[in-house]
Structure formats: C-alpha cells, structure tokens
Inverse folding.
C-alpha cells in the first residue's frame, strides 16, 4: 500500500528547477537592504509541469458538489453555475483597483447598487452593507450596528440572546464583541420556548439572534409573538440568513419584525464555497438603523453611482475596501438569471425536495424526532450510529456526508437543495438504507467491507492528529 | 418558452410524484406553518437594470449585460496605485486551478476522508507562509489583512491578559479604521502613536508603552512603503513583556525581509499580492503566523498532518476546541468561512516563482524599479522627497506640485492610474502622492510617466 496519496510539493523540489519567467531589466542593481536581507525562504523549486501534476492530483482527492450531491444541512451547497464565474472573471471586474477614480468604476458600482436593492426586496430591509466577507462577519457587523444604536440612545444593554439551537457563530460573535451571551431554550417542538424568552428578555438585552426556519429545519410559527416580546422591551431582532434558501418569495424577515439581517451569498445565491471561502455576508437593516451601517454605502445620484462616506452614526468599517467584490458579482448575476419567479421556485423546490427526503426516509424506518411537521429546506434525522453512517456513505457509496451532531447529538441534518434531481435524492436514500442495514447486521457489514472504497484514505486517526499536531513541514 | 427555471431540474412529473409521496396536494401546503398574514401574496419586485428586458435574463442577455457594465470600468491601464491592493501579474496556472470544480466548489474540510486535497493544500500553504515569516504556525487564512489585524490584536490580549493595544499611525488608514471599529466593543484601550519622517515615532511609542500593553502593532513596509525600525519596536515591546505584532500588507516584501529576524512575535497581514487579483478590493486573504507556544489562541482553521487507520499519511483540521462550532461562546473567534480558495492561489503562485523567482521579482522588478522611479520623479522640477533618507520597498511618497486629484485626472487621459492622494487619509499630507511600482510597470512605463509629469509641469494641468 502507498504511504501517501500525493507527495508534498516540497519533496518534489530540486535546486535549479524553475517554473517562472520574468522580463530582463536594464536597471543597475543596488544593494538596498544590506544586512537586513533575509536568507532563502525554502519555497519549492519545481517546473510548471510538476505544479500542474501536483495540484491536479490534489484536486482528485476531493469529493465535490459537482460530482456528488452535497446534502450538508445548515450550509446550503447548491450547484454553482460556471456562467457566474465567467462573468465575475471579466477583466473589467477582476483588474480594477478599489481606489481608482469613481468615474472609472461605474459598472462595478452599478452591480453593487442593484445587488443592494435586490437583497433589500428579498428580505424586506431598507439598506444593505456589502462589506462583510462571510455570515459570521455579517453577524459581527449586525451586532456592532445594534450596539451603536443603543449607545446613540444612551441605553446600556449588555446582553444578546440566541437559541440553544443557534449556529455556533452566533454565541461566538456575541462574546467576541464583549457582549454577554444568554441562551434561550427550545421547546419540545424545536421552536423557541416563549416563556423562557419572555423571562430572559429584559431591558439589558440588546438583540435576539434567530434563524427562521431554525436549525431543525422548522419554521417557528410564533415569530410574530417573538418579535412582539423583543420589541416591547425595546430590543432588536436579528435574522441569521443561513437558511434563507427556504423562504425567498414566500415571506420576508423584515415583514415579520426582524430589524437586522445577514445573508450568506455563498449559500442561497449559488456562489461557490471554495473549500471554505471566500463567501460574502451582506448585512441589511431597517430604516431606523440605516445611518449606522459601515461606510461606504453605494448610492445613485442622477445617472451616476457614488460611494457614500457620510453616514451620521456609522460604526466605521468592518473590512478594508468594499467587500468580496467577485462574490457579489456572482450573486448579482444569479439573481438576474432567476428573477422573482425563479427565486420563489428555488425555495419552493428546495422545500419539496427536503420533505420528500424526510417522508421517504421515514417510510424506510429512519427516525425523525420532529418529523410530524413538514420541514422547510432541510430535515433532521436521529441515528444512534451517526458517525459510522456518515463515514460508510462516503467510503463505500461515494456520497458526501450531511451535517452530523447538529443541532443536537446524533442528529443528521440533510439538505438536498433545489438543484438536485429526484433520481439523485433517491440514490442517496438507497445508500442510506444499505448503510443502515450494515450497521445493524454484522453479516451485511462484512459484505460491505469487501466492496470497493472511494475515499483516498481510511478513517482518520483523529486522536493522534489532535494530540500530536504537525502544523508545518520542517525544512530538511 | 421553457417550463423549467434554470438550475432547477424538477419536472412537473417529478413534482407531482414527490408531493404525493409527501401526502400533500400542493406546494403551499408545505408552507402552512407560516401564518397566512405573514406570507407574501405577490412576486418579489426586482427591477431590471436593463431598460427593455425584465428579469429573468437568459444566459445570452445576462452575458451581454455583464460585459457591458464591466466595460464601463476602466481596467486597461498602467497602475502606479497600490496602497494595500497591488497589481501584480498572475501566472495562468493559478487561475486555471482556481476554477477547477474540485477546488472551487467543496465545503470546509470538516470531514477529512473526503477532503484530502483541500487539507493538503492548506498544510502546504501553512508551511510556505511559515517559511516566509520565519514563525512556526500559520492559520489557513482569514478574510483580509484588516480583519487579520483585529484578530491578531485580540489574540495578543488573550495571551498577555492585558487590554491595551498600541497601533502606529503609519499603518494603512483603513486597517486602523477597521481596528478601531471592532475595539469600540468591549473593555479595550487603543493608543495610536504618531509618525516622524514617515516612520513610527519611537519616542511617542516609548512614552505610551507600559506593563498594560498587550501588543504593539507596526506595519512594515508601512503605508508609505517605508521599512520600519523593526528591531527597535521589538526591543521596546519585549522590555514590557508585550508582544510585537508585525503587520505585512505588501506580502511580496517577505521575499526580502523576514519578520522573525527582527523579533516579531506574531506576523499578521494580507497575502493578496501572492496570486490574487485586485478585484476591486476583494476577495483577498488575511493571515496570522505565530510561534508554537501561542497556537492555542490562534484563530481560524489550522491543518495538521497525521495518519489514517492504516498508518497512511493524512491531513485533518486541528484544534477544533478553539473554534465556534465546538466552543460557541468560548471560541477564540467567530470565524467560520475563511478564504481557502485565495490560499490555494498563494500556494500555486509561490510554487511557480520558487525562491529564486520570488527574490528576483521582489528585488529587481519591485524594490529596485521603485527606486529607479523615485529618483526619476525627484529629478522633475517641483517634486520633492516627503520622507527623505528612508529605505522603502515598492511604494514611496513625493510632494506634488499640483493638486493630486487634478494630476491623476490628466494621467488617466494617458491610461495611467496615478498614485494615491495621501490627503485623502492624512489631512496633514495634502498634495503628497503615494506611488507604487510593480513588475506590471516596467522601465518604459516609468519613463513615460516621468515624461508626462515633466510635460504637465511645464505646460500646467489645464
């Protein structure tokens, strides 16, 4: 057996090999750094052919949503259309500098202006900042906006609430900005426990952060009561847009009483995840909070687009420049391509697919603790042996594992998305059935283990990896 | 007309089969948990940016429109503008791999068995960054340099148990703005120390540093391109057991200057220069490198090399206990999505240049060429050194005989994007211009710029 899949690029290095080429220069070289000049850094010395081979071979080790359905609940992994990449890669977008004269970036600003407008309409907000680079970054931005709002009103509010089922980023965003985090319990149906919320919602509380549909994939029907409880005490309601893929054109968080909302463009609007990023987390606010947004915002004056730096209460900036521009362009193009009816159908189809998955799996004997309700765009199954189930799906069926142990231990959160065919959903279900049989029957398992494996490694030795970290390759 | 919406494969037949399996009659039955009064009863209103075509657009229409607006941007220029976003050449092989679905589309590599490619890319990226900065541990990317500075500041506070941070005014103004935005929340004290002849005022630093100081953050090369007295900064910081965070915004300088040689405890910054397009300011990528003893407080993903069940070399994410999905409110940061794809660009770019290429690029085509431009411009009547007698990398500041805005407008007529008007960020530096020179502006381009500046000086801007 091979000891490694792909040799480290440093091991392919040979002195004297090069891939680069640079122009000749006629200027006379001077000694400008003297003793400050460093020693050679130990980068690989390889040919371009070797680089091509190396990265091709590494790519081949990855499973990806182009080859397989990626039903990763809570992180919508839909199809990423190549058209959007091609358009975002036009030289007029890729090769412009953020500080060039406004008259030379009118096209770039037009795209931002319309994206802002569209996002406002989709979630019912008054204005967006496109600066945040990710959902969590949007959360930080929203929390700072809320904080600045209460400071401007001379109210001291030190706490922020989030449900026990919230994404981990919610509590982390809260405490990393110096607010106190308080957890609100869920009731037995996966909804917010209104009594608990009422008890915790005091005048010390600035914000309640909520995603709806929540992380159980359920719509919380008490949303108007929740909004009423928060607003009665003068608080702000924050919409975590991770699950927006369920609701476009069906309802708008702003109409439900949400005051601040972030959107993960890399989930709902089809921009790729890129192995973990870059994404984009535009954050919108209602009218009364507009002046607190980071600067600059994009405005239209007559026929001209401009960057507006004069917002009276602006929190400042959350990122250098204006945001992850090429991601914004892709999301903008995606919205143009789908239009209002298309976006509604995206959400409707995503919800149909998830419910189909839930019902069919229920009939095959899988347990869905909340399965007496229709789910939204994702469903949560409970299984005693979830790690093994997820692993075997990948190893012997070339299926991507869904989200495990979230929002509770032993949960399996499945989100098929609207871009998968009924056939691929059925195939995934069949694989789950086979794996489940193997887990329950040692004879079936023995048969399974004779089959071809698809993963380039066997089960990782996580214990060793955690206990004995090796975080870089030392030089020989 | 087609029945189906692009990217949705579900046919009418599929739909009716699925609804019947679910046991409902129509789609809206699935949305019954949403109270009727809260539901939208009409389609969203999305006005078309095109006068004659409503949404949705077809692929042909969309391509046409996007090409049209991209052509309204002026990108076909010579850039003498840097200031935190650098116009470096990007080898074709970088962009090719960035578009490969197996790198472009996967999720964060939480499951190692199906993401070995991603994980090895990150491990190699970490190794290259550590070799460049001279430190021992690198995270696998953050959003950008400005947010990396914020995270590094918080990291230093956690490591020292102190809440005061000193930042130099020679740091990129937008980075300071981001830093000050974040540090308004919580119990912090941020002290900004001034500038003396284009560098951090060391006397000012000495007066402000104390046993309360968690970290001193100094950018080098700084916003004016000048290489700071890093040794002295480190000495002062260490005297008070504070950490010295060396901020690097022009990552290419790492090819010539290694921060660990000058006592940096943490190196944070922006690596856009390594293979990432300017892209109107993003996505770029932030990084933080540190010593191994500090790694438990380092935010962001980190990959470790380990083994699988059969003893085969394998890679996985390390230290999840630092991260939000495990530790929630006790996490070292809220970062989840990061800039992994940009880190792939860095790895391919650095492999392409190698040691020799990167040094040649940084030295001959950036630093030496910038000095050539500097000397050439100083010879033009009316231009003068703003911060004389300093070592600088690929950016420099000169006093300009015109209003910088008006000059840049003129340069644009020659397809030249001029330098940054420093007065935009520093009211005390009006009519000073920050020029940047990279391998994309060669000797001929510099000569042409100098000729135009000379001409404009003689004829005036009118």
């Amino acid at each position: 057996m091979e000891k490694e899949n792909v040799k480290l690029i440093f091991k392919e290095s040979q002195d004297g090999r090069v891939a680069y080429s640079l122009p000749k220069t006629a200027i006379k070289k001077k000694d400008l750094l003297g003793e400050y000049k460093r020693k050679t850094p130990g980068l690989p010395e390889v040919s371009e052919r070797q680089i091509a081979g190396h990265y091709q071979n590494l790519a081949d080790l990855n499973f990806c949503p182009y080859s397989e359905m990626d039903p990763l609940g809570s992180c919508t992994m839909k199809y990423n259309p190549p058209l959007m990449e091609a358009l975002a890669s036009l030289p007029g977008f890729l090769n412009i500098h953020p500080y060039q004269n406004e008259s030379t970036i009118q096209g770039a600003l037009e795209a931002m202006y319309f994206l802002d407008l569209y996002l406002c309409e989709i979630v019912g907000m008054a204005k967006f900042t496109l600066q945040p680079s990710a959902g969590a970054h949007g959360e930080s931005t929203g929390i700072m906006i809320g904080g600045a709002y209460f400071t401007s009103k001379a109210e001291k509010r030190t706490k922020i609430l989030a449900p026990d089922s919230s994404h981990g980023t919610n509590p982390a965003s809260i405490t990393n900005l110096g607010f106190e985090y308080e957890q609100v319990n869920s009731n037995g149906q996966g909804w917010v426990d209104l009594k608990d919320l009422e008890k915790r919602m005091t005048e010390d509380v600035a914000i309640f952060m909520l995603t709806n549909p929540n992380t159980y994939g359920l719509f919380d029907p008490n949303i108007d009561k929740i909004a009423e409880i928060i607003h009665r005490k003068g608080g702000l309601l924050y919409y975590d847009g991770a699950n927006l893929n369920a609701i476009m054109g069906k309802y708008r968080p702003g109409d439900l009483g949400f005051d601040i909302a972030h959107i993960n463009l890399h989930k709902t609007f089809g921009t790729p995840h890129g192995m973990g990023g870059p994404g984009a987390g535009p954050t919108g606010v209602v009218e009364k909070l507009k002046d607190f947004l980071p600067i600059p915002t994009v405005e239209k004056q007559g026929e001209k687009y401009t960057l507006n730096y004069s917002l009276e209460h602006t929190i400042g900036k959350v990122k250098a420049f204006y945001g992850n521009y090429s991601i914004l362009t892709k999301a903008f193009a995606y919205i143009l391509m789908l239009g209002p009816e298309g976006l509604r159908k995206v959400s409707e189809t995503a919800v149909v697919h998830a419910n189909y998955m839930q019902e069919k799996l229920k009939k095959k004997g899988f347990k869905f603790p909340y399965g007496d309700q229709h789910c939204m765009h994702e469903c949560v199954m409970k299984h005693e042996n979830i790690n093994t189930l997820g692993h075997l799906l990948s190893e012997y069926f070339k299926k991507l594992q869904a989200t495990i142990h979230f929002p509770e231990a032993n949960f399996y959160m499945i989100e098929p998305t609207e871009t998968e065919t009924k056939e691929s959903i059925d195939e995934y279900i069949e694989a789950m059935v086979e794996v489940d049989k193997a887990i329950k029957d040692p004879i079936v398992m023995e048969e399974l283990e004779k089959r071809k494996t698809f993963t380039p490694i066997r089960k990782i030795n996580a214990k060793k990896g955690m206990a004995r970290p090796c975080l870089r390759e030392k030089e020989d | 007309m087609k029945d189906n919406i692009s990217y949705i494969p579900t046919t009418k037949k599929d739909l009716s089969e699925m609804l019947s399996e679910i046991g409902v009659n129509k789609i809206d039955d699935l949305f019954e948990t949403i109270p009727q009064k809260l539901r939208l009863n009409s389609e969203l209103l999305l006005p078309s940016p095109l006068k004659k075509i409503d949404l949705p657009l077809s692929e042909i229409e969309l391509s046409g429109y996007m090409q049209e607006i991209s052509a309204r941007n002026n990108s076909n220029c010579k850039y003498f503008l840097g200031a935190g976003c650098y116009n470096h050449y990007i080898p074709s092989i970088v962009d090719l791999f960035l578009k490969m679905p197996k790198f472009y589309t996967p999720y964060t590599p939480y499951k190692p068995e199906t993401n070995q490619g991603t994980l090895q890319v990150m491990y190699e990226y970490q190794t290259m960054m550590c070799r460049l900065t001279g430190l021992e541990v690198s995270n696998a990317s953050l959003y950008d340099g400005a947010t990396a500075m914020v995270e590094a500041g918080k990291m230093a506070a956690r490591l020292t148990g102190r809440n005061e941070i000193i930042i130099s005014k020679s740091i990129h103004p937008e980075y300071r703005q981001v830093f000050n935005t974040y540090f308004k929340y919580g119990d912090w004290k941020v002290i900004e120390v001034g500038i003396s002849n284009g560098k951090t005022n060391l006397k000012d630093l000495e007066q402000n540093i104390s046993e309360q100081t968690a970290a001193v953050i100094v950018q080098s090369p700084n916003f004016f391109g000048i290489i700071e007295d890093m040794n002295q900064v480190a000495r002062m910081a260490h005297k008070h057991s504070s950490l010295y965070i060396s901020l690097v915004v022009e990552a290419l300088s790492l090819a010539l200057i290694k921060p660990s040689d000058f006592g940096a405890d943490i190196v944070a910054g922006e690596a856009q220069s390594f293979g990432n397009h300017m892209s109107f300011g993003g996505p770029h990528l932030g990084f933080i490198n540190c010593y191994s003893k500090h790694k438990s407080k380092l935010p962001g993903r980190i990959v470790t090399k380990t083994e699988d069940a059969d003893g085969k070399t394998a890679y996985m994410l390390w230290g999840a206990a630092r991260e939000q999905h495990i530790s929630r409110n006790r996490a070292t940061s809220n970062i989840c999505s990061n800039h992994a794809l940009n880190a792939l660009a860095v790895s391919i770019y650095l492999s392409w240049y190698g040691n020799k290429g990167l040094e040649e690029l940084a030295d001959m085509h950036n630093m030496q060429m910038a000095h050539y431009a500097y000397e050439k411009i100083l010879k033009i009547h009316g231009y003068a050194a703003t911060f004389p007698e300093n070592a600088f990398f690929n950016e420099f500041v000169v006093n300009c005989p015109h209003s910088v805005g008006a000059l840049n407008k003129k340069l644009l007529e020659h397809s030249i994007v001029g330098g940054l008007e420093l007065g935009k960020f520093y009211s005390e530096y009006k009519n000073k211009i920050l020029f940047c020179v990279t391998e994309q502006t060669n000797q001929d381009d510099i000569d042409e710029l100098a000729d135009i500046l000379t001409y404009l000086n003689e004829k005036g801007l009118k």
About this structure: Chain B has a mean pLDDT of 96. The longest helix of chain B spans residues 340-378.
